[in-house]
UniProtKB/TrEMBL annotation:
TM helices/strands, residue ranges: 70-96, 116-137
Entry GO terms, CC: endoplasmic reticulum; mitochondrial outer membrane; nuclear envelope
Name of the protein in its database record: Glutathione S-transferase 3, mitochondrial
Pathway: Lipid metabolism; arachidonate metabolism; Lipid metabolism; leukotriene C4 biosynthesis
Gene3D superfamilies named in the record: Membrane associated eicosanoid/glutathione metabolism-like domain (1.20.120.550)
A Pfam family that the UniProt record links to this protein: MAPEG
Lipid bilayer topology: Multi-pass membrane protein
GO molecular function terms noted in the UniProt entry: glutathione peroxidase activity; glutathione transferase activity; leukotriene-C4 synthase activity
Length: 142
């Protein structure tokens, strides 16, 4: 039976995972503001194409939904990788979080092309988290 030792620096991973939750809240607030501004009523998830501001609202909603698709994945990967590489994992999660804020702001502007800078920054966080998982697994199994 193996014993897992949590390094002291793992606290940075916990902090990074918690901070990323604010990205979700930020996206929620942006969608709520767009919902109010463009009069898109609940429970309608996306605006119909016939709505005057469908593109603007749908961009804000899509930015939030896409962030939610990756949030839990990145949080789990941060905690798993943090057992072996706590500082690296926390920094990668921080990079993802900053990129997601940029992504939400860019995409939420109503111009889908403005999401690209934030997407690039967030991928500098999420893709290394995926790769590092295999390195951490190898180190644990060796």
């Amino acid at each position: 039976m193996s014993t897992i030792t949590i390094p002291k620096e793992f606290g940075w991973c916990v902090l990074a995972v918690g901070a990323a939750c604010f990205t979700h809240l930020y996206g929620s607030f942006k969608v709520g503001a767009a919902r109010k501004k463009y009069n898109i009523q609940y429970p309608q998830m996306y605006a119909e194409k016939s709505d005057a501001h469908a593109k603007e609202f749908n961009c804000a909603q899509r930015a939030h939904q896409n962030t939610l698709e990756w949030l839990s994945v990145c949080q789990v990967l941060t905690l798993v990788n943090g057992i072996v590489f706590p500082i690296t994992a926390a920094c990668l999660m921080g990079t993802w979080t900053v990129g997601r804020i940029m992504y939400i702001n860019g995409y939420g502007s109503g111009n889908p092309d403005k999401r690209m800078a934030g997407a690039l920054v967030s991928h500098f966080g999420d893709l290394p988290l995926v790769i590092t998982t295999f390195v951490a697994a190898h180190k644990m199994l060796a």
